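Form 7-S
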Amino acid sequence: MGSNLSFPEVEIPPDRTYIVTGGNSGIGYYTAKEIARMGGHVIIACRNMSKAETAIQQMQEEYEKEFKEKQAKLQETERTEPKKLNVEKMELDLASFEKTMKFIEEFKARNCPLHCLICNAGILVKSKEMTEDGYEMSLQANYLSHLLIILHFLPILQKSGDDCRIVQTSSLSYRFGKLDMNNINYEQSFGTTSAYSNSKLYQIISMYWLTRHVKDKSVTTTSVHPGFVKTQMTQTNTFGRVFSAFTRNGYAGATTTIKAAIDPSYKGETGVYFSNCKIEPTTSYPKNVERQDELMTYSFQVLDKYLPHDIKQYIDM
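Output:
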């Protein structure tokens, strides 16, 4: 894993709740498993409930196996029994605003606190595909729907404690992205790599905008580059194969996300970008205020009918 890819072992209170989108596979799977192992209450938000249930069972089995291997090295009087990981599933389809809203409303109906929202799910499409809402698939699933969740859950995060966080899984590929307002929905041209890179760029741009405009600064917003991780997504396209020699496994890829989500030393750190388990500067491109305002004006127009009615109470618009 490398000495620079690590997160602190902390004891997470069982009432501290984490949502991990796309928590049934890849980076999200290991993020959810490790946070639950440390004691946290984890909700994996996924499109396929059958795969989510299988993932939860696998997490428990892997945890118990690893636990017993560690216990075998202890004296018999020091040994304990493994716990049941507190992981549950909720249905979320980011390719549909209505289905994303269904997830949002179902979580709100729980009247449950939320301490960390990890926007991890992401797709890289092989060809141009439009959602039922009329937006390019990676634009909506990677960026717009996650932004919608953030905007609805901000008040819950703000009420849940003094160390609540939003962590977005971005990518170093944001450096290859560009905000072209004349082609943001790929009306003129489309490229697999550019669409993915753009969606990751938009996440970082929105992070900087939210840092400036959210009224209550108690909730931190960060972005994470997990490294080039070997997942089903990255192995089925040219972009992933180009970087195959540099790929990490899912666990190594999750370390930076986990660190940003749970490390006590990063309490209060907001508007920052993590790579290799440490804060690194982004390029100046997403920091441009006019560019931020352009993207967010467009985003709010797209999401208008789904926005919280009281959004102006907690965001300067």
